[in-house]
Amino acid sequence: MDFLLSFLIFGPLLFAAIALFARNDASAKGICTVGSLLVFLATIPLAWNYSSEESTLRGTFWAQEDALLDRLDDAAARRYVDLAAGILHGRSSGAEGDPGGRWNTAEDVRSLVKERSAIELFPDSADAEARRNALLATIAAIEEDDPDRAATARAKADVAAESGDQAKAERLRHRAEMVLRTSGVWLDEGAEAILISDRTYNDQSLSSLPATPAARQAEISRRQAFVEICELRKAASLDLAKRLKFVTRVPWIKTFGVYYFVGIDGLSLPLIFLSTLLVFLCLVYSWHIEKAPKGYYILFLVLETGLVGVFCALDMFLFYVFWEVVLLPGYFLIGIWGGPRRTYAAIKFFIYTLAGSVLMLLAMLALYFNATPTSFNMLALLHDAPTMSLAFQGWVFAALFIAFAIKVPVFPFHTWLPDAHVQAPTAFSVMLAGVMLKMGGYGFFRLAYPLCPDAALSDSITLPLFDWVLPFGVPALVGGLGLINIIYGALVAMAQTDFKSLVAYSSVSHMGFILLGLASYTHAAFEGAALQMFNHGVSSAMMFFVVGVIYDRAHHRDLNAFGGIGLQMPWYTGVAMIAFFSSLGLPGLNGFIGEVLIFLGAFQSSILPKWMVFTAVLGLLFGSAYILWTIRRVFLGELGNDKYRSFSDLEARETIALVPLAIMCIVIGVYPKVIIDVMDATMVSILEMSSKTFGG
Fold first, then answer.
1. What's the CA gap between 144 and 148, in Å, rounded?
2. For position 385, what pLDDT does the model report?
């Protein structure tokens, strides 16, 4: 299964390379279309086995940790044992080795790691309880050599309880009682101090290395192994590590700690499924393209690699590379196959997106150099997030927020989107609205909020240079921007006479609900926002296909010049109604459940002003207004022009593109559990990381 995930990422590039050498355009189109179908089909076994898959990120890390132990000598192993005991069992010790001398070799450490792996990977097995008790007895025996440890922890717990910090008191009591937590492990303060102060295996200058080449290499290898073990331990300690599956982690740029590190969880799996499906449907729909079809189809496969890579990457450097891969195909698809003002739209799309990428790069480098040890590992960075200062978090959050807000897009960074949509070919508009906008929302969930929990929850904002303190906090700011998107996008959509421009502004409005959910900090709102990303991807893709079908026949998109299309094209009208009513949020279709969860969570929120929630309801009313008005102008009444009588109903390629999405709108609307069950556990973990710290 791990191989299938890499196939999803690089399979499109393989088929693109084969198509590049095809003898003619028809062959190239066939190779790309079949290749995209095979990539989509590969998502089905991943989705089917996701819930039952026992191989998690923790298992992958522990297997790699076992191999790394072979690179440590006995002295280094004894040092590592002390750190491992602190991380695994909530026990910290500043001694140079194990006080009791019970674990003295690397082989003993490997036994501990394997036993820990067996217990935590399979907590429900028949002998799990007995093995857990045996391991606790071993730890208790070691604790006998340090009898003051538990007493000190209990005393600290009493002090914390008296000061009102019940959470810290409870943690210290657990530490004192040496509870082995099978639901996850955490790096305590003592072990963190050991890691930071351990210059021998961390960032000691190279001048102190042994003089002989062999000794120098052995020492460097030993230090790298120790640092990597610490990084793996941090990453494995997160509850999110239990959700990530089909993980692959191999060195890429070892000097800087960059890995090909990919995996999927409940947040990324639905978006990967949607990306691969839409690429296949877009290539089928585009079979009539005559202008340089080989390049057109190859660029779509390159775009697919970037999109799937973004949703799989767990290394920030790799994430950034895939993020940039998405930019280039988009620029060329608009600039070559777009409308009359395609050059302007392509350049605007490129500049806005690149500006966001630069901010994300700066934030990524800041996180890398701030980490101890330096790392691009997203999960290790997430582990250290609560220890970062509020000022540092504030700058990183601002950079990441703006970078992802441009992609969503959030007001006032939205102006590139209508131009890009109007000028882009239909298939690229489908990908842009269906998946590419979701990259911004995904970035909020995956990086911005969990990496900067204190900044994202800050109740005050200070403007740099001016030292002005704004009279509201970050949640209110995010919720306010979402509210502007919802209302402003709907009102501007209502004023449009260009069919495609109307759908573009409707996307601006609908993406505002995701910000409203993020600002609410409740389980229902977070889950609703994630579900809204997927559901909007389905319905907006359908709507752009609907626009493309009528444009191919009428060669214009003037809403006031249509009318009566429903009688002339009944099958097309029926499918279009599903798309429109899904976007409207009609109960029984997929657009309803996400918005309901967002509003339920927003009403329960203790940090989002209630007036914002009530005002956001107006967006639903305005949305219903422009949707129903559009239906009346396009599909109802008399034919707007006699030439419309010659319009044929849906062709085969158009049917293949629209019907699967219509089925998804109905199935998810009637049975949303199929998506919610996949997302739920992951969204709980992300919400916990985003709303509270792990440290003392």
1. 9
2. 79
Which stretch of DSSP H or E encloses residue 463?
strand 461-463
CA separation, residue 183 to residues 57, 66, 84, 242, 692 (Å): 14, 21, 17, 8, 18
What gap in Å lies between CA 439 and CA 598, rounded to an integer? Answer: 19
* CA proximity to 392, closest of 355, 356, 363, 372: 363
What is the residue extent of each domain of the chain? 73-145+183-239, 471-684
From CA 451, how far away is CA 582, in angstroms rounded? 34
Question: Could you give the 3-state DSSP secondary structure of residue 245?
Answer: strand
Query: Are 104 and 74 spatial neighbours (Cβ–Cβ below 8 Å)?
Result: yes
For the chain, how many residues are written? 696
Q: What SS3 state is found at 461?
A: strand
Residue 451's identity, in one-letter code, is L
Helices (H), 414-473: 416-423, 426-431, 438-443, 449-451, 453-456
Instruction: Judge contact between 641 and 557, C-beta under 8 A.
Output: no
User: What is d(CA 666, CA 685) in angstroms, rounded to the nearest whole number?
Assistant: 29
Predicted local confidence at residue 317, as pLDDT: 93
- Contact between 675 and 270 under an 8 Å Cβ cutoff? The reply is yes
From start to end of 184-281, where are the E strands? 245-253, 258-264
Q: Which tokens hold the place of 207?
A: 């001048």
Q: Does the bond joining 373 to the residue before it have cis omega, within 30 degrees of 0?
A: yes
Weakly modelled stretches of the chain, pLDDT under 50: 75, 78, 80-107, 109-110, 113, 117, 120-122, 142-150, 174-207, 693-696
Gap between the Cα atoms of 97 and 225, Å rounded: 18
Cβ-based neighbours of 141, under 8 Å, separated by 6 or more: 100, 102
Residue 264's DSSP bridge partners are 245
d(CA 157, CA 155): 5
Number of H helices, E strands in the chain: 30, 4
Supply 513's token pair.
């609900």
